[in-house]
Amino acid sequence: MSAQVTSTGFARFGKRPESLVDLAAEAATQALEGVGRKPCDLLVVGNMLSGPLNGVENLVSRVANRISLETSAGLRVEAASATGAAAFHAGVLAVESGRYERALVVAAEKMTDRPTPEVAAALARSLHPTEQVAGATMPALAALVTERYVQRYSPDPSVVDRIPVEARRASSRNPYAQFRTPVTEEEVRASRSIAPPLCLLHCSSIADGAVAVVVESGSGAATVRGIGQAFEALPIVDRPDLTTFASSRSAADRAFSSAGISRKEIGVIEAHDAFAPFLLIDLEDLGFAPPGGGSAWFSGRGPGPEERVPLNPSGGVLGRGHPVGASGLAAIAEVARQLRGEAGPTDTGTHPRFGIAQSVGGLASHNFVTILGEAPG
User: Fold this and answer.
1) What confidence score (pLDDT) does residue 108 get?
2) The predicted structure's pLDDT at residue 304
3) pTM (two decimals)
């Protein structure tokens, strides 16, 4: 049985005064209105940090009560920073099973009202205990990955600085993005050091926000063609190669295998660029560039304009902001909007038939890939 995305909803990313449940309800209400308030028999809620940061548990019941879905079945999903994608996959599998006709998938996070060190410590709990004891943080480990990648492939440093520029240029058109003002390469380089060689504008920002999609049986412009997920060793010391994320490669292979299409048919990409250099690795792991070749997308030495696939038209994680539990679903929702002709100001103008969304969980220990597009045949 096929499943498709028929509606999407957003609660704008950024610093929001509303509660976590209010943000989830805002996005959910918008998505439900998009299908004329048709009844949903399953509610899937994705969230990573409601307990540690908000003191809120039993979240799925709270959201169901807030939007009057008490008669639905429901479950909560968590997969670190890939939570939104994991929630979507859970909803898709439930609908494809035939047990549910229509699922509302909501992913939300509330982060900005807590001190940054507290948020960093909460995010670090998704790392291996030995890394936590050593005081590792996400930016610190991302810097190690970046250094290893630079040592092996020697990309032009300006390429990494250009990635946030492109992200902010795209997010300036996105009414739901946290950052609406473009930046220059000079501003990227001048931003304060976070974990050398990473500066502030190389790193995604914590945010509040929520996303919702309605998944129902049937097929359309945003049919779920392929999904894939995979794990990699949790401690990075156990990984044979830090210049690639095996979990992304495996998840992508599984998604393309089930979709039955080639990479050349993809017309829009939403990749998880929580740190600017990771976008190069993402492009390579997804199969859109050879190892070490991701920088060609930004250096003028890669695909020509007629061959270049629109990349992160939403602004990606760097431009959209990173309410961690919601980011994975935001990427999928953006792809669905592009395919359904509902992207508005972020529309690429290319009328894609297929799109791909990638989400990274933790330090790439649990990654997801989703392919949407026209139904086969």
Assistant:
1) 98
2) 44
3) 0.97
Could you tell me the sign of the dihedral formed by the alpha carbons of 142, 144, 148, 151, in that order?
Answer: positive
9 close to 215: Cβ distance less than 8 angstroms: no
Give the tokens for residue 122.
């909460």
What are the distances in angstroms from CA 211 to CA 8, 194, 217, 305, 340?
Answer: 7, 29, 20, 31, 17
The amino acid occupying position 294 is G
Domain ranges within the chain, ordered by starting residue: 3-114+207-216
Token pair recorded at residue 38: 């048709």
Estimate to the nearest angstrom the gap between the alpha carbon of 288 and the chain centroid.
18
**Using CA atoms, how far apart are residues 46 and 44, in angstroms rounded to an integer?**
7
Give the C-alpha distances (Å, rounded to integers) separating 87 from 69, 214, 262.
17, 12, 25
Q: What is the pLDDT of residues 94-116, one digit of tens each?
A: 999 999 999 999 999 999 999 99
Put residue 333 in one of left, alpha, beta given phi > 0 → left and psi -120 to 50 → alpha.
alpha
Q: Topology of 3-114+207-216 in CATH?
A: Peroxisomal Thiolase; Chain A, domain 1 (3.40.47)
Nearest Cα to Cα of residue 290 among 275, 305, 301: 301
Per-state percent for the chain, helix, strand, coil, to nearest 5: 40, 20, 40
